[in-house]
Amino acid sequence: MAAVDDRPIGVFDSGVGGLTVVSCLRKALPHERIVYFGDTARVPYGTKSRSVVLRFACQDAAFLSRFDPKCVVIACHTVSALAAGLLRRTFPSLPFIDVIRPSVERAVAETKNGVVGVIGTAATISSGRYQRALKQADSRVRVVTQVCSLFVPLAEEGWVDGPLVEEIARRYLAGMRASGIDTLILGCTHYPLLTGVISYVVGED
Ligand code: DGL
Description:
globular
């Protein structure tokens, strides 16, 4: 019988948004122990420079590695987009699971008209990581992107609905709606907390 590895799974994010990933992990893997680190002191990452995000990512992973995790989930899309390669090189014995590939695989499988939207932080969208990964997964896909910076502080404040949030979502997502996307990647850990208003504005379908 194979030995059970009862070490925890490490998960980190720039703030509370990564708890959306923890909640999915708990459903999928109810018997696993999870150690979560949310860098609420330094959130947001998505408006910071590449070099700062790389430094923070290495510090976060070093902190989590003290708990001897069997693997680490990079719940933060900004870190996944900018620093996943660096983390894998810096901590070669620690498996890192990023959030870009699963999102891309799902989006490519779901889209019917081949027009996929990606919303994310300024750092994630300007890295071009999602755009490249989607094109690699299916070269026929047309990618439409939008930075939605204000969604992060709204989610951190727990402001996830109401007229103000809806107005902000309308401003950000009007172009998305008009572009004919049939699939939208919430390319930031915080955005699932605003799923209600986002799907209301973009269209439930
Ligand atoms: N956790 C970040 C991400 O998923 C969003 C918040 C931030 O800007 O730090 O991209």
